Amino acid sequence: MTLRDDERRRLVEIERGLSEDDPRLARRLAHFGSDHLSRQVVTFVALCACFVVGLALVAAGAQLRFWPVSALGAVLAVVVPAVVTWRVWLRGED
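Above: the chain sequence. Below: its structure as tokens.
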């Protein structure tokens, strides 16, 4: 959906006014729509999926009495999220 010229001009004026009135809020809103947030969301969803699949594998391995499946599930549920979280935390301290 495209904006008309007058609508686009009004939005630019609103943005300029916001930046002048509250620069801190303007910076936060500019950062809100960035790629950084979407990367955090994707990482969180992937970690949750990894945890759920890992728990399912632990349960399946226990039901089948086949320890390698349970071990793989434990790695997926615990080790992978821990390592990813640790790396994200280290990257955040730079």
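Residues 35-94 form one domain.
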